[in-house]
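Attaching the record inline, Q. Sequence:
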Amino acid sequence: MREFTRILCAVDYSEGSGRALDCALWWARWHGAGLSVLHVHEQAEPAPDSGGTGVDPIGTPAPPVVPPAPLSPEERDAMVEALEAFVAGHRTEGVQVELLLEEAPRVTDAVLARADALACDLIVMGISEGPSAPDDQPVVGRETTDVMRAAGCAVLGVPAPAPGRVNPCLAGLHRIVCPVSFSETSRQALVLAGELAARATAHLAVVHVVELSEVAASAYDFDAYREARIEPARLQITTLVSDTLGDSAAVEEILMTGVADKEILKTALDQEADLLVLGAGGAQVSPGTGGTLEKIAREASCPILVTGAVPSSARPDQVEAARTIVATP
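Structure, as predicted:
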């Protein structure tokens, strides 16, 4: 069974990252894990110095790159105080919290580097609210799906809850939905979903969406075409669940046709899911549609747990620049 022993939560002081922090604290208590809370001060990209000289790879003179100015000691102290105040405003009973402040040009790179340096099992981040992200959207929301696709550990994205519901993590896990295809990443997601459901004694629904080709449907008898796609999928989902979780596991198998992200979101709502568990990068949901994970993340009303993808490339210069404070509640 997978154990979550080290959790990293990235915050930007927005309402969304506050919900993410509440979830991270809940998961840390549930698993007895250590929690690090990271705020990344996003630096300006390095700019060329127009007054300098240099040579680019093909021999053309080019100005040298000037790195952005680091924060002053006074600025860092103010940011540390803001981070301490933000964390103190949330419940931390029973969890020792490590506070991290970093400076980096890209939030995604800093989060991935810090997660690697800490050997994290789980990254928790807020997800932007609404189907489209405004230009002034908090940076953590914009970066979350990038981290989901690149992290070498699991990533929990926390959106705004459905109307009338509290943050699901605060009420525990009662209903889990796991969308699958029949890939290895899909099997890994199902293993994790099954372990979480068993640990929480939660209901687990495994859903597979068959996307029918409109061109093929118009060229052949639609009913025959549909049955030719549905029946093999029905057998495959039953076999996947049995081989992965065993015949004794209490699992609801849901097979449907339509557009993958729309049907998955509809199922999560119908099931009143507290958690969606997806394979790395969302590839198992709908191969060939790169935006499926983003669509689900943007519109989901419950947290989304994505299994680890590939090891990220931590850059020592990023993690060494961190300032660390340990807060004991």
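The longest strand covers residues 34-42. The two ends are 29 Å apart (CA to CA).

More tomorrow.
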